[in-house]
From TrEMBL:
Keywords: Metal-binding, Signal. The lineage of its organism: Bacteria, Pseudomonadati, Pseudomonadota, Alphaproteobacteria, Rhodobacterales. It holds the Pfam family SBP_bac_11. It comes from Paracoccus fistulariae. This is Molybdate ABC transporter substrate-binding protein. Belongs to the bacterial solute-binding protein ModA family.
């Protein structure tokens, strides 16, 4: 898929960054929904500084549990506060480094082309009728943030009890996206940024913001971070250059960018 022009421009802007990584290796554990933007940021960081950034993408719950069990992560990017809380409560977040970095939106998607619903129609959504006997793709509704947000939205709209038997749960939000992109499920609930990254799905509508908790992505250095490159990449995530890439991918930047 061709990158949007804004992503290309932002990537070029990253070349202005100082070469601070000193050939260090950075291991990042990140929510799967961050892949499109974070891959771009990591590639440009490596090209400029020589530092190697390895990113493990999965559901935030799975990543948090791996860190708590001793997995060697230098930076953790979660798709909600709960799983960052778990890592912090285990004493594994470096002091003073936790910050709310990004926000996102929750959308209903369809395989291929679909009619777009307005805000009022989304509040009066007849999802059971739209599904019929088909499946609704979602991330794990009791563990993965995208699934938890989706379940909360459906409960708020009075739809969950009727829809629950039709939910096909996936390990993370990108896996749920893939079910819809391949046509295995006609409809799904994902983040707006995921929908924007996949050409074979279309957005039917956005769930009301008040139908689910605010979607927030906290980031932190872990206590395992030692190399100067770890701090350099962490700092880059809240830079103006990274903010441009995140915004082009559809995220809301919550932390004021720092030069």
């Amino acid at each position: 898929m061709r990158l949007p022009p804004a992503l290309v421009i932002a990537a070029l802007a990253l070349t202005a960054l100082p070469a601070r990584a000193e050939d260090g290796a950075v291991t990042v554990f990140a929510a799967a929904s961050l892949k499109t933007a974070l891959d771009q940021i990591a590639a440009e960081f490596g090209a400029k500084t020589g530092g190697q950034v390895t990113i493990s993408y999965a559901g935030s719950n799975q990543l948090a549990r791996q860190i708590i069990q001793g997995a060697p992560a230098d930076i953790y990017l979660s798709a909600n506060a709960r799983w960052m809380d778990e890592v912090e409560n285990a004493g594994l977040v470096a002091d003073g480094t936790r910050q709310d970095l990004l926000g996102n939106r929750l959308v209903l998607i369809a395989h291929g082309k679909a009619n777009v619903l307005n805000d009022d129609q989304m509040r009066d959504l007849d999802l059971p009728a739209m599904l019929g006997d088909e499946k609704l793709a979602m991330a794990l509704v009791d563990a993965v943030p995208a699934g938890q947000y989706g379940k909360a939205a459906l409960e708020s709209l009075g739809l969950w009890d009727d829809v629950a038997p039709h939910v096909a749960q996936a390990d993370n939000v990108r896996a749920a996206l893939a079910l819809v992109a391949t046509g295995e499920a006609p409809l799904g609930i994902v983040y707006a940024t995921d929908a924007a990254a996949e050409d074979d799905v279309s957005v039917i509508g956005e769930f009301p913001a008040d139908s689910h908790p605010p979607i927030t992505y906290p980031v932190a250095l872990t206590r395992m971070a030692q190399d100067p490159a770890d701090r350099a990449f962490y700092d880059l995530l809240s830079s103006p250059q990274a903010a441009t890439i995140f915004e082009a991918a559809g995220f809301t930047v919550l932390t004021p960018p720092r030069d």
